[in-house]
Amino acid sequence: MDNLKTYLIFGLLIVSLLLWQAWQTDYVQPQKLAQENKDLMSDVPNADGVKPQGQHQQDLPDLPTSPDSLPTKEQDAASDANKIHVKTDIIDLYISTQGADIHNLALLNYPVESTRPNVPVQLLSDKSDEFFVVQSGLRSNVAAPTHYDQYTAEQAQYELSDGQDSIAVPLHWQSANGLKVTKTYHFKRNSYLVDVDYLIENESGQQFTAYPYSQFNRTRPPKASGFIYTYTGAVFSSKGNEYEKVKFDDLDDAAFSQKAMNGWTAMIQHYFVAALIPDQNNQENGFYGKSLNKNNYTAGAKMADINVANGATATAKYSMYLGPKEHKRLEAVANNLDLTVDYGILTIISQPLFTIMEWIHKLTNNWGWSIVFLTILIKLVFYKLSAKSYKSMASMRKLTPKLASLKERYGDDKPAFNKAMMDLYRTEKINPLGGCLPILVQMPVFLAFYWVLVESIELRQAPFILWIQDLTAMDPYFVLPVLFGLSMFFQQKLNPAPQDPAQAMVMKAFPIIFTVFFAFFPSGLVLYWVVNNTLSIAQQWNITRKLGAL
Predict the structure, then answer these.
(1) Mean pLDDT across the stretch 104-127?
(2) At what angle do helices 437-455 and 4-27 cross, to 10 degrees?
(3) Which of 58, 238, 377, 399 is at 20 to 30 A from 24, Cα to Cα?
(4) pTM here?
(5) How many CB atoms are located within 10 Å of the residue 48 CB?
(6) Residues 6+ apart with CB under 8 A from 45
(7) Burial of 52 (0-12, 13-18, 19+ CB in 10 A)
(8) Distance CA 212, CA 50 (A)
């Protein structure tokens, strides 16, 4: 922020954010779950228009459903015996034998809070109050394992040992007529990518045809506290529409469906993503999303048909990414998956800024200093533009005595005073908007940097120096917000004073108002504004002194 006009613009953004949050609270009321979610695959063909290919598409049986509510905590605890525990070097998860699906997954390198380093973030959970699971299966017009069917496991626990690079976890299902399905999960060291494959052995005496499906099923999360809003919901990607957000509210209004070659779908939230990536084999897949009861939502994919002749075998595979939104990891998994690091409409600016900040971090090994040095680089890029703004402000400051004289001469006759003031500007060849335009040009970069600081997981719980041990948390002692308020106060002293007494009083209150606002902002954001203001004060003081306006 380089002058008061910038504060007004930023204030408008804050007010807009608060209005958005109020609208969300008033019109998006979460409802308690009344019944267990019905299997989407039984009614998706009618809801999303994506029907499986093949002879069985006209005669799909309904899958079993239950009127019971989603599992309670007590029910969850009782079902732990039916889960297979898998642990790698970075994830700790449980696979339920019902559906052979991942129902719980913790990210070992990401504590919930920096003050609780031994409590990891639980990305997936089958607890009723934070329900977020993976569901998958095979859909056919004959007996086939869906996410309701029971599998058997070879052992109850798997752990990646020292020197081991991967784990394979097979689960088995068999029908009464000789159809065998083996669903195998593949976990790798230092990887959040989970590969899943089906091996289908057909000894049923007839051809078997089915399509694999996989979906994320989650409840609507509670409203986040604080001033910063980040998107939580479904995302779909396809050629020509590489990143399409479909909000929970949109799914309440209508189910989503599309057919696409390759592509992927995901459920994203602040810092973390669960993404489903069908095998990128240039086959058309169906992607869908649906609201089940306006509090429980799915986003998934229906993959190409598998046709298995009697006596033959066939395979199908897909992948899931279940972890942090780290650029490098996401780029390596699928095209455009890194867009889940959601910088919004300013991505084209935010991504280069993050790349530069990441490069600085390699030199400093401290994300706080990366913020400081990148702020300095941004100020250098806009140095000349800022100089024009400060020269305009200094010229107007020199006119303050003359403006005061005009104010005294015309008193309460505002039309006459305004006319005389504009005549004075023309005489002195001063553009009163000259201090505003250069700042408006810089605002997209400032806002893009803001989203880099908000969205980048690399800054999550990253320490700076001294008392700042988490750049994404508020300053525990409010030192940075106070420094910000003081910098704003000193910058006001370099700007021309408003001639309107009421406006002057409002301006005097701004440092206090914004100090209160920034007290609840992440310390990394406040650090950016403190450094930016300090550099702006130094540049503006130097220009104002040279023009003799002090």
Answers:
(1) 90
(2) 50
(3) 238
(4) 0.76
(5) 22
(6) 51, 52, 57, 60
(7) buried
(8) 13
